[in-house]
Amino acid sequence: MFPVNTWYVACSADEIDEKPLGRTICNQAIVFYRAHEGKVAAVEDFCPHRGAPLSLGYVCEGKLVCGYHGLEMGCDGKTVAMPGQRVGGFPAIRSFPVEERYGFVWVWPGEKDKADPALIPHMEWHDNPEWAYGGGLYHVKADYRLMIDNLMDLTHETYVHATSIGQPEIDETPCKTTVNGDEVVTSRFMSDIPAPPFWKAALRAKGLADDVPVDRWQICRFTPPSHVIIEVGVAHAGHGGYDAPAEHKVYSQVIDFITPETNTSMHYFWGMARKFNPGDKALTAQIREGQGKIFSEDLEMLERQQKNLSAFPDRALLKLNIDTGGVQSRKVIERVIAAERGAS
Amino acid sequence: MFPVNTWYVACSADEIDEKPLGRTICNQAIVFYRAHEGKVAAVEDFCPHRGAPLSLGYVCEGKLVCGYHGLEMGCDGKTVAMPGQRVGGFPAIRSFPVEERYGFVWVWPGEKDKADPALIPHMEWHDNPEWAYGGGLYHVKADYRLMIDNLMDLTHETYVHATSIGQPEIDETPCKTTVNGDEVVTSRFMSDIPAPPFWKAALRAKGLADDVPVDRWQICRFTPPSHVIIEVGVAHAGHGGYDAPAEHKVYSQVIDFITPETNTSMHYFWGMARKFNPGDKALTAQIREGQGKIFSEDLEMLERQQKNLSAFPDRALLKLNIDTGGVQSRKVIERVIAAERGAS
Amino acid sequence: MFPVNTWYVACSADEIDEKPLGRTICNQAIVFYRAHEGKVAAVEDFCPHRGAPLSLGYVCEGKLVCGYHGLEMGCDGKTVAMPGQRVGGFPAIRSFPVEERYGFVWVWPGEKDKADPALIPHMEWHDNPEWAYGGGLYHVKADYRLMIDNLMDLTHETYVHATSIGQPEIDETPCKTTVNGDEVVTSRFMSDIPAPPFWKAALRAKGLADDVPVDRWQICRFTPPSHVIIEVGVAHAGHGGYDAPAEHKVYSQVIDFITPETNTSMHYFWGMARKFNPGDKALTAQIREGQGKIFSEDLEMLERQQKNLSAFPDRALLKLNIDTGGVQSRKVIERVIAAERGAS
């Protein structure tokens, strides 16, 4: 169902600032917390003493303390201490490689010794004064691959997001998908069209006219295990489209980190990094709210789609040209899973 | 569990006026909508493209449009069009015979070529100025046959509906059940008794004395698959009871269309057609509200009964004389199901 | 999972004063009610007529009347009467031995002829003017043995109940467990320590200084099937601790009757009998409220622990010295169950 020898986003960094966080990732109940000097740590959410969830406990001097009988857990899964007990013989619980990066905690749910932080993809917008970022998290009761399908085919914008970013020209313009190794790219370039409401607002925010024809682009980039980064933007028509000089265009990256919770549910981390008016916090909040609303429109569709697919697991679905991005991404996922299995 | 080569009520006509309606009937997820010129149509609630529920879509120029990627579905289950696609090779989904009649949409969940609209039972009260109708819908988590049992034995009124239509004389008066082919009739005639609260109000509504003895009747008529029409009324005692001239009596038909949703749940369409004061809309609303309340009193009993029966599926129940109506109705249902199986 | 030839608390006596009560005990759905002259009775919650739950009915002249069709059930499980029916041949339903004692209804869910009311444990505080009692009921979605573990090891007070009865000295003081036949006793005696908030308030309530060192004791006594009575108290230090004269100490019994509902849920009857200021009803209410809050703090922990254990049923847990009380209690339970099986 999903690769495990890979990095997934587990939570945003601030979710563990106050107390430990219990979250299931790839069918494993894990507790995330800040250990010594705030360094992120992750172990099984299961106290080796009596099976209580460690996420109901608290952190004291960098150690995770079980809220039931005070067992102190180390970030390597070995019990450090327990009042009145010798803990040397206590069985260890599993610990998980974690890294804090780009405002997120990343977790490696598979074989520990294969975890290499260098494999976490680079995000150029982080800590970059030319960019601003805002985002959120949705829990969705659907196979994470349905979200990849969704994001690798923006045709659905015309229907699901008709009042914000959808427009008939999306349907009318063919998309093109290419596969480069493990990367799948689906792109669509629309020329000389009106800007939909979301982009009109973005043009105005940058002080550009919003009532003139634009060139619009969507470049969806899937990388394993389940990241989809989408370059989106519009430029006043006639200035080169995607390649237009900065003063004629507004553009962003839609950031999607999709983490399997179980076989039929996911944690969906969505956001937008934009390269215009980066200092305008009110705009960041406004875009975040708008994007949150747009993305929430997909949730019922995906959850109901999942129910239909669960009811008819053997029913063949169509694989049209517009589905190529999702189909190719799923092939990459299958290849990665097969490689994992072959290696172990 | 239930016949399928038969007509069931799927929804009231106005439930699909604004947008498509997804509803499970006999374990099949179906979407009902108004196609060309408002004609009712029903197909599987499963888009052949990616399995999205078509009921989350909308109707455009008589075609059902999937809300995910814009596939246009015809009422025969064949895809009509999809933006940028050739749809000739798309697999068809199942369509269902439907008819709009008596303010309801009727659906035939079985073999399409056996569907004959002439088999929909005649309702004399519909579009008849001498009658008025009001009703509603309850979703009940119980085998639909428990509702048939309930309605074919009005003894329970004494206990479940003590404050409205129940009275001890019901228990004290034996009922009689006859079977005529596929029709089962259970009737009870009570003579010279006080009218219970519901009928007192009905007498007053027609300008008749409510404090004099009455003759009261209940004639429950089951026809397959699961319709129960109950003639009910009271006449001032001594004028011939059921056969009394119209000026001495008030009477109605209780209308019950019971549609299996799953093996242990149902859609229960209830209503009352009355033949007095038909033009009095306030009275229609008042009766509807009262009947809705009375019928809701049965729901907890049936749902809890279902839980008990599910916990003890092999436990034999009693079949008393008062249960004969339900027992005989179930026999008819079994015969109809056996005939369906023999034929196919 | 649980002994059945034994007495469990089914409900508090006032829960059946107004109407019958349906409650599942040891996986059996039972209805409890007051029959002739208020005597408690218990039968299966399943009407032999059509399987309706008798707990939806009412009591009339000492007979339990089914709320569906008026069947009158006797407290021996035999149908007494039914309107218009001869009931001689009706199948009996199961009846259960019940006793009302100490403000509770006790039920024997196993073999009827083995039920001996003399086996109900004696409660010295009941109907005793020197004592006052207050308590409540929690439904907990966890194996009842997790609550026994919890109560037979009060180490957890330090962590779960840090602001009321917890204090570090509990952890620092070893406990001692002894087994006397079927009785398991875990005790802890702490000397010359500050009183925690709950006991400070109790000292003040009795007019004793609350800012002086105290000796504190906890004596947890398990008896089968699942009763845990805990003697708790503090005495001003230097007067003999547990054995100090009454004027120097405040003490109570924590009463815990733990009744399995299903294999993974329980009814938890908790309370406190205290031997100071017994006439002070406001104090009774205040202690009851405080105890209810303290005990509710355990619920999430136990329910989440149950989820973890259900997810990993084969994972071995630790059995530390602090767990000895629970471990020994579970051994007694296993022995009782084995004896039951051997005997039948």
- The CATH topology of the largest domain in chain A corresponds to Naphthalene 1,2-dioxygenase Alpha Subunit, Chain A, domain 1
Please tell me the total number of domains of chain A.
Answer: 2
CATH class of the largest domain in chain A: Alpha Beta
Overall morphology of chain A: globular
Helicity range of chain A: 10-25%
What is the averaged pLDDT score of chain A?
A: 94
Q: Please work out how many helical segments of chain A DSSP would assign.
A: 6
Helix-strand category of chain A: alpha+beta
Using only C-alpha atoms, the radius of gyration of chain A works out to 22 Å
Give the oligomeric state.
homotrimer
Looking at CATH, the homologous superfamily of the largest domain in chain A is: Naphthalene 1,2-dioxygenase Alpha Subunit, Chain A, domain 1
Largest contact between chains: A-B, 27 and 23 residues
Low-confidence stretches of chain A: none
User: Based on the structure given, which CATH architecture of the largest domain in chain A is correct?
Assistant: Alpha-Beta Complex
Strand order of the largest sheet of chain A: 11-17-16-15-14-13-12
Strand-residue fraction of chain A? 25-35%
- Largest β sheet strand count, sense and barrel closure of chain A: 7 strands, antiparallel
Number of strands of chain A: 17
Distance between the termini of chain A: 16 Å
* N-to-C order of helices and strands of chain A: EEEEEEEEEEEHHHEEHEEEEHH
